[in-house]
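Schema walk-through. Below, the input block comes first and the output block second. Nothing else is stored per chain. Lengths vary across the set, and this one has 264 residues.
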Amino acid sequence: MTDTLPTGLGPDELEELDDILDDLRTREEEIPQWEFCDGFLTALACSRRPIPPAEWLPMLVGDGAALDAVPEALPAFASAAQQARFLELWERRWTEVVAQLDAPVESLDDERAFAPEAMDMRGAVASLPEAERAGVDGQDVPSFGQIWALGFMFAVENWPEDWAAPRDKDAARWLDDALDSIVALTEDDTGRPEVSMYAEDGPPSTSQERVEAFGEAIWAVYDLRQLWKSLGPRVETVRKAPEPGRNDPCPCGSGKKYKKCHGA
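--- output ---
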């Protein structure tokens, strides 16, 4: 029997998210694409520490300064209602990603498997009519999954303490290998185009090596989620203040020597 996963975002809701981000860009230039946001969200789902919205929302669509609490509306949002809707859709996607990463899958063909919101922009451009495609020629078009991976690593780089290597050498190696698989996607796909990730019958736009690297990155996300779940939140070292010498004044302020007061 197949476990039922939470209902994810449909095409209309993904389009709504794109529209919200487009509108935010009219007030703040450096608002990322949804693909970048999805990579960022996935990294937060894998983080060792639960990172609250008051930390991640300003980092994604604000000035980067962590807040004590999420305000009614950050400056990038047109209204409190728009921000609330963005967070509602974000939470829907978050719940879906977490459920996918926690589902016991053995193949990425499993309908429960994690599916990043990665785009084949080169495939989309290659599928355009020739007249429209001419207007894009010469522009730097990202490789398949590249923007998604950049969003993931943006979160990793902005919370370095939460992604610091654990002391256990095997766990540290596990972390490095997994992150290396995602970093590989941030690089350009320079291989020979053989497949289209945009459409089954679309013109070739992505190398076979890139397709395999994308699969490895997905498994790496599973590894990262499992690694931090198994280790738990980082435990801060408690440092005990040095104890005064027996003949030193007692720190309680009594005027007596420590050995005659609290050290007795």
